[in-house]
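Subgroup meeting minutes
Present: P.N., E.W., G.H.
Scribe: E.W.

1. P.N. recapped why we're keeping a running log of single-chain structure predictions: easier to compare across weeks, and new members can see raw inputs and outputs side by side.
2. G.H. added today's entry (352 aa).
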Amino acid sequence: MTTEPLGGGRTAPRRPTMREVARLAGVSHQTVSRYFKADDTIHAELRQRISVAVAQLGYRPNLVARAMRNRRTGRLSFLLPPGTAASSLELLAGAQEEAHRAGYGTEVFTLDGPLETRAERALELADSGFYEGILALTPLPLDTRRAAGDTPIVIAPHYDQHMRSIGQLADAPDLDEIITRLAALGHRRFLHLGGDYRHTSARRRRDVYLETIDRLGLRSHAVIDCAWRAELAHRAILDLPADSGVTAVVAANDVVAVGAISAALARGWRVPEDLSVTGWDNNPVGAAMTPSLTTVSVDHEELGRRVSRELLATVREEPVPEENEGFTRVFWRSSTGPARSDTGGASLGRGR
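Output recorded in log:
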C-alpha cells in the first residue's frame, strides 16, 4: 500500500490538467482527449481552440497514462481525508483484501484542502488513466455518472473531513437491541453517558438511546456528556444520587463504560448485581476485565470488503451486490444482568 498526500502544502507549481484545457477551450474533457488521439472527426474550429488553450496553459499530456487508457491497469485507488483512525486502517485492510482477491493492486491517497479542491484532485486521478476505479471514503461534490470509457468514481462516505465516522459507520441500531434486552431483564431506569458530540456517531448513539427509551415506555435519569473520557464517566457515577433508581448505564464507548464501572465499584456497588453497564467498540481489554464488558463489535474489515465489492461491480459494469447482513454485533458479557427487584436501583443503602 502506498499513501500519498494530494492538495495543500505543495511547493512545486502544479501541472495544468486536461480539464483546465477543456474549460479554457470551452469544450468537454472528452473532446480534449480525442484531440490528443488525433481524432479527425473533431471540427477544425474546435481543434484550433484546443490548440490555443494547450499553448496558453503549457499543457503536456501524460504519455504513460495515455498509453494505459485503452487497456486494463489492474489498479484501484482509495481516497481518504487526512488524519488517523484505527477503524479506517481496519476498513482499508478489508477493502484491499477484497480488491487483491479480485486481482487488483491498490493505492491509498489522502485528500486535504477545501471541498472543491479535493473533488478536483479526485477527478485528476480519474483522468490520469492509471486506475480502473476510484473509491472515495469521504464525501465529494461529484456527479459520479461519468461518460463511457471514463474511470468510475464510487463515493461511499464513511468519514468526514476530520476522519470522524459518518453514514452507516455512525449508525447505532444495536443500542435498541441492548436497551430492549435490558428492559426484558427488569431494568426500568437508565443513564446514558455520551461521547463527543462533534462526532456523528456520538449523536446517533444518544438519539437511538432516547428514541428506544421513549418507545419502550422506560425512564431516562439523564444524558451526561462525557466526550469519550473515562474520568468524566467516573465523576458522573460518583455524583449519581444514591436514590436515583438507575439500574443500567448505557455508555457511548468502552472507555466511558470502564470509567463508569470503576466508579460504581468505588461506591461499593456490584456490577452487574446493582448496576448493569454496556459499552461500544469491543475493545479487547473489555473481554479480559472483571466483570467482562457487554459491548458492540463493529466489523470494519467486513465494511471495507463491502465497499470494495461495490467498486469492483461498478468497474465491471455489473449490478452492485446487495448486502443484507449487518456488520455490527452485540457481545453480551458479565457486566449486564437482571435488575434487582427488591431495591430502588443502585442505591442499596451503599455508597453516598
